[in-house]
Amino acid sequence: MEVQIFGTRKCAETRKAQRFFAERRVRTHFVDLAERPASRGELTRFVQRFGVSSLVDEASRRYADLGLRTARLSDERWLSMLTEEPMLLRTPLVRCQTRLTVGLAESEWASWIASS
Questions:
Q1: pTM of structure
Q2: pLDDT in the model for residue 60
């Protein structure tokens, strides 16, 4: 079993996700969004499952800096913006094969490990 974690090193929830899998000796591949943004195709998987609104972190500093509080954008435009501005994403984004989660979801991750 191997999981892919998208997040930043500064994000506490991302560090919790990394620690969760490390404690259970699950191999992880970490993608630091501050260094390399997620690809559009990767984000599309999460958008198809959860919708764009669940991926956007409206409490983030970058969201306020860009003045998006009153923005009304289409899902396609949001997807483009999330690709260009990865600091707008709610993290961690965790993927294990076709299973996906947004944010801290330890109970779901535990079920993944139990089923493998």
A1: 0.90
A2: 87
